[in-house]
Write a structure and sequence with these properties.
Layout (H helix, E strand, L loop, with lengths): L7 E3 L2 E3 L4 H6 L4 H7 L5 H13 L10 H16 L6 H14 L12 H5 L5 H16 L6 H14 L3 H21 L4
Helix pairs in contact: 4-5, 4-7, 7-8, 7-9
Length: 186
């Protein structure tokens, strides 16, 4: 059933289209769940979701400690895959580090990406890894061939099918556009 905004109505909540990634991952976050219990109009929920993300909170807090350190090292590999460190990438890495509660002492360096990927053993942790890497790759406005190749190798190693990867990439592209649009309000 569609509501007045043309969105799917689910109980007292409305979700944009059928974005299962948003429903499965974002609304499973305990901090954000408090918002969904308010019964607010969907556009207000979406604005809160954008504000929540801009405060640096997303999915990384759902990872285990070993997954967090593995993610951080994999993300560093992505940043350096194109031999360019953009200021937006550096800023986002600082947000990631803060969200995960990592300090420099907690981050052991590991150069072997395949070994790091072993920490991601659930569907949710794999999705979180890929979504956050895509967000990082798009943060500098240039999702180039080197970054694409790096992420594609990770996706293949994790066994994520092409359809799911395409859906994740599409979701991140929309989210990135919404983030840029939302900044006009601040």
């Amino acid at each position: 059933m569609k509501n007045r905004f043309g969105m799917e109505d689910v109980g007292r909540l409305s979700f944009v289209g059928s974005c299962s990634l948003f429903n499965q991952l974002f609304l499973s976050d305990p901090e954000f769940c408090a918002y969904k219990q308010t019964g607010q109009e969907p556009h207000l929920l979406l604005m809160r979701a954008v504000r929540y993300r801009m405060e640096g909170k997303m999915f990384l807090s759902n990872l285990t400690e070993p997954q967090k350190t593995a993610f951080y090292n994999i993300a560093l590999g992505l940043i350096y895959s194109d031999d360019i460190l953009d200021i937006n990438e550096a800023h986002l890495m600082a947000k990631f580090k803060s969200e995960m509660g990592l300090s420099n002492e907690k981050i052991p360096k590991n150069e072997n990406t395949k070994d790091l990927l072993k920490a991601f053993d659930t569907k949710q942790s794999k999705a979180i890894l890929v979504l956050e890497l895509l967000i990082l790759a798009y943060s500098d406005g240039d999702f180039n061939v080197d970054e694409s190749t790096y992420i594609r190798e990770i996706v293949d190693t994790l066994g994520i099918n092409s359809f799911d990867f395409t859906e994740m990439r599409w979701w991140v592209e929309k989210k990135t556009a919404l983030d840029r649009e939302a900044r006009k309000f601040f």
